[in-house]
């Protein structure tokens, strides 16, 4: 049941620095083969969640790119046409700058742009003279970078008029040129619109441009009224939002005019409303007299008079006594508030319930800004509005309610951050925020609930919070430990850390903080199974943790969460099993999730009872299974119920329970395991049922059950699901404790793998399980009192070795690889067991004959050159076990010493990682192993098979390595005593393989391709000067050309034809090869004639 998911580990630094800087240097050195998008894009993506890790390196990452971009721009503006090379260069540089900005943010990247006085003309010339080039769709990155650059330059502290040319026309004035460029880019739908909005906002925030702000406002209103595109309207509102945020209160007067035009763009209009209304508190417009005709001017002046007399409550902490000098709430109600302000607040409250998250965020910030300028009594009213909106049912909310909850949490968080939640409202806020934290559907609600509590503990005094600190800490701890999402767990952990540090009054705060810090809760499994038991040692938190797991986690929609929750429950209960025993089960619930969680929880508690020796309580856990209705196995997701029920049986059944007859209060374990689990279509359920029966077989002899299994397996109408399940369960029984029909089981498994046997299984999954089961039987019995006879062991070993020949292919691909990988693991396991027990096994040669042992190692090596990466990876892992295992190295001596052990150790050293799935690393090491005579035949066959692969990552490195090895071989044996191979010997082995498999296309096609590869590697040409070599060449030609007219497989014909054409170029075989060419030219297949 250990099926828990884990989150990605957190990065601790810029681990890709060296690789990144090397690629960047190559790119800046005009290495056009390196594209920054593909070279560094993936690296930067890994730091999206932790961009601050790049800060120490930004200088050397960004400055060279900016300087190169500036140099290229300086070059291209001198030419009327931009060549393709410079175009590509500009696009790559701009795209790289966009990646920087995307990862770290525009504000962090902009300061690296050159911003001297001399840079302004250069940037302006590029934007204007290359307007046609910049208007292309693929130039979006350049537009973005250009506007971003200009937005920084236009902040220089000099009057822009000083850069105007003498007698320049109006449109050629520097300010107007910048305005024109910004407005032009404002119409684009892409990212360049944002940098253009920043450019225009910074332009009109300049003191020498304040007089032009009314003109900009008139232009904006006119464009909106004229029906500007949606993208342009968004850009206009972005300008307004930036102006209001950074431009001061004076700009609010004019910008309010077009905000009231009822712009139909929720997010940006909300931002503008926020900034406009929050600026009313201290209005001192520099052009106040000239703007007095605006309809809102009197209202703003009146509102400003009252707010100027009001304390800035954002700096006053309730409960500290600093608010004693403030007017009472009653007097604040007497402050005249304009009616339009009510409409503004109403719009913002509606905004926090919007379907768009960004709108809710902006509205929440706006509420806090406006409330900071209102009397305290009105802030309380806003809190009351949010407190009455959320629904009390926090576990299952409709989407609309989730938006309301999220918006309410965000608003309260912003209000709390500025200290605008009064002491009288803290209790209510803490109450319903803690409810929001248990919303299991919407992650944003849970995250924002932690944000509220974080803000509360920062802004409120300890005296006010002290009655609620334990409740707050419990809520944050349970969320940081048991939430599904990593960002929510981190948010709760951060809020708890803030509460511990700010208040110093949370029970065991520092100790618990060590167990639930940011990194501890970043991995879900660690939070559930490591941190939770540590927190449970403190009594104040133990019961709340159990309640949360029972009421929330075990009902979670994610099965992995329920599994982890049950394991966490078992760990918590283990702290004090006497008082925290099994909780009331919910096995009769109609909710499948709840039933599944209940079964898992009982199983984990039963496991805890078992570990601590509480057998009677464990029996009670087993009996609770009787409350589970049989119909639960057939419901939707009944597979989860069946799997959990089998797991519960495995953990709770005992010798006493096995002897109980099924009755009221006693579950029928045979029905659960035999009738449901083992016959279920879901493989996970079969595995759980097999594990349960394995436990039972250690308590009683299951020989009758095994005989029934064998009859079902060998029945003519046996289905693949039945055979798959039975072949697995036959291997997990406790044969070391009881007989359990072991002999019958072994015969059944061997028969399922023997092709000529009537009981041979056609199911690839069943054959895979048969091999694994035979390996498990040997591991359990060899060396025990129930050791196998030598004949049975040899049969098992030989049968398992036959799995190396399974190359079954169906619509799923090479499914035979499943059997071959199972064989690899089985051979390594059996070999280690048999050598470990060598001193107990006599005579050892009868158990493991020498030829079988050498055949096993050769089979592993053959799979090591397999064309499939995953098969090679398993083969490499198992070969390392065979070479370096202490059991084998210490006992495989004498005749049983691994042949060529020294060469294998040099090729695959123990202290070096062995990436067998990487062909470039592996294949150069393989051909030299052909010098070991014990492996030549089988290893060469594996090489031949892989050379026919369409996988270039496997074929090309192996082909190069084989040709290099063959060219290094002597043509004939230099000495009879040496074991080193010769080129003639290589050709003899190839010809022998071909003659033995003439009718097998699966062998002949790869063989012919291998000969073609050897010709291309100039290997065969070396044989032309040797008489014996010429004979081999003629034999190879005849192998390819003879009977070609009778061949029907086009792929084989094509491979043979290539060999024949190759041999035309060899002098000793040219004339004979030409005759065979005529046969192919006149072949009855037109395609063959055409290809020839």
TrEMBL record:
Keywords: Chaperone. Residues 329-510 form the Tubulin-folding cofactor D ARM repeats domain. The keyword Chaperone applies. One of its GO terms (molecular function) is beta-tubulin binding. InterPro entries: ARM-like, ARM-type_fold, ARM_TBCD_2nd, TBCD, TBCD_C. Signal peptide: none annotated. The keyword Manganese does not apply. GO terms for biological process: microtubule cytoskeleton organization; post-chaperonin tubulin folding pathway; tubulin complex assembly. Residues 854-1052 form the Tubulin-folding cofactor D C-terminal domain. PANTHER family: BETA-TUBULIN COFACTOR D, TUBULIN-SPECIFIC CHAPERONE D. This is TBCD protein. It comes from Thanatephorus cucumeris (strain AG1-IA) (Rice sheath blight fungus).
